[in-house]
Here is the input.
Amino acid sequence: MDEGLRSELQKQGVFTVTLQELHNWSRSNSVWPLGFGLACCAIEMMAASMARYDLARFGAEVFRPSPRQADLMIVAGTVTKKMAPQVVRLYNQMPEPKYVIAMGACAISGGPFKQGYNVLKGIDRYIPVDVHIPGCPPRPEALIHAFMTLQRKIDAQKVFGPDRAHHFDASKPSEFPIPLYGEHDLVPTKNPNVWEPAVVVR
Amino acid sequence: MPGAKLTLVKNDSPSAQHSLLVDIESAYAVARFLRDDPQLRLDYCSNVTGVDFLDAELSEKVKVKKVVDGVEKEVEEVRKTKRAGYLEVVYHLYSMSLKHGPVILRQRTPGRADPVKVMSLTPLWRSAEFQEREVFDLYGVLFDGHPDLRRILMWDGFKDYPMRKDYQEPDDYEYEPTPHDDVCDKAKAHYPAQEAKA
Here is the structure.
């Protein structure tokens, strides 16, 4: 639609919008997170949702106790190998469209426990992560920044066409295989459809 | 305490926390004495932990008299002895009623190969229950008389004992952006695959 005509119509009190804009605008301003935390990052997540940082400004204050009602999973804290299957299961139980924020050094890479025997080296090995926040733990401002990054990402999603968002494409998976407890490690150790080790140029 | 073999293990560091090494057969009886004796009354077990000692070669300097060029001299010699590895379980005991402690009690297994068994002191101190399970989980020490000996931190199907010094961790060093030291060595094994991809 012609921008001049649109602004002329707005002056007359007629607002025009595309279906995609309306859809993305409503989605991005009501991202309801799943209320679960794994470690100290969860404390910062709670602080972000309280009055001082007030996540309600972004329409994301409604922490849901059930994955069936949640749009966003904030992986806040250390994902141990013992906990990883449950995190993937919770993700699988969330309805589409769903998004993931990996919060903190542990959730994105294993963090200070990277060389340990019991901590997963990043939740992105099993589920697709939309926004990674570094920090140990990240401050509430960083989480708010992650929210705004996610909102921009949602605003840019297409509803129609070949490059439409994955929740409009029936051929794209919405559930991911849950790793099993093996004798020495989780089996498999990563989901190659979701994560491949990046090529580091040395 | 008839038949109990007790050894005082000295600690020469400034903390001077000497400990009492007790043989496995009489550990339970000794521990019960420490708890019930009216002068000791060590009624609180604050900490249980495991220690892994690998097979080691000990070397000590010994002065030996030797005849060198027809003259008797005192020569220093390094004598090497092999010591088989073992596992230890260490208990820290305090007395709440008499306000003294800690008394450090050790049990030492004969070797590191399975099964390594010591006496459980959980029937005497309930606080030892989860910590003995943790020692079982991470070091593979079996506790005779423990009411519920299961893994506590790792999952049930897990086969390794991760706190043992010869533990082989799974090789998941395929992505190390800033490797250093031993991580660098482990990551280097994955470099050919990365170069093939690049």
User: Anything to note?
Assistant: The CA atoms of residues 183 and 189 of chain A lie 12 Å apart. Strands of chain A lie at 33-34, 72-76, 99-103, 131-133, 180-181, 186-187. The interface with chain B takes residues 82, 115, 117-118, 121, 181-185, 189, 197-201 of chain A (CB under 8 Å). Chain A has a mean pLDDT of 91.
